[in-house]
Write a structure and sequence with these properties.
The structure is a single chain. The protein is α/β, with parallel strands linked by helices and 183 residues long.
């Protein structure tokens, strides 16, 4: 009896593997640029996608949106606002500047992927360098990225993340809005 149950379990396991391999083979044969199939994808390199400086007097509101990158707000000795976005090859940063409001969003333009044995992305991050006396609006939204910031006592701050952490310096409580979904 035991050998019959073992044989049935083995047949089910081998059938599942055969179906999986058949599905992968069909995807590879029908690949028309819609899928990127990889067996190993370890330590994905990143590069600087966007680096730009702005006159802080020309910006009244700064809005940053990203899905997975960590966002770091840092202090700068310069009077300019500098933003550096680092991500994977093939991603773009969409910039919009209207009515003294600067909006940046990293767009995922990478093909749909099927990856077996996924590795880590080395460094996806957004670095925002603000003048010491920054006193305007800043809005940062991430899905799974962390948000880390300096003292922003004079700024009006909005931060939102779904599964990341928010940590940093001092902010006047009447000028902050924090929203996160976590544990």
């Amino acid at each position: 009896m035991k050998s019959k149950k073992g044989a049935i379990a083995l047949i089910i396991l081998l059938s599942a593997i055969a179906i999986l391999l058949l599905g992968i083979m069909i995807l590879l044969l029908m690949n028309r640029g819609n899928f990127n199939v990889k067996l190993f994808n370890f330590n994905i390199d990143t590069k600087i996608l966007y680096e730009k400086e702005f006159d802080s007097a020309s910006i009244n509101e700064l809005q940053i949106k990203d899905t997975s990158a960590n966002v770091f707000v840092k202090e700068s000795d310069s009077d300019k606002i500098k933003i550096v976005v680092q991500g994977r090859e093939g991603e773009n940063v969409k910039e919009s500047f209207e009515n003294h409001k600067l909006e940046l969003e990293r767009e995922k333009t990478i093909k749909n992927s099927i990856v077996f044995f996924w590795g880590t992305v080395k460094k996806e991050e957004v670095n925002i360098y603000l003048p010491k006396n920054y006193n305007k609006k800043i809005n940062i939204q991430t899905t799974s990225g962390d948000i880390s910031f300096i003292n922003l006592e004079e700024a009006e701050v909005k931060m939102k993340t779904s599964s990341g952490e928010i940590q940093g310096g001092n902010i006047k409580e009447r000028r902050i809005y924090c929203d996160f979904w976590g544990y």
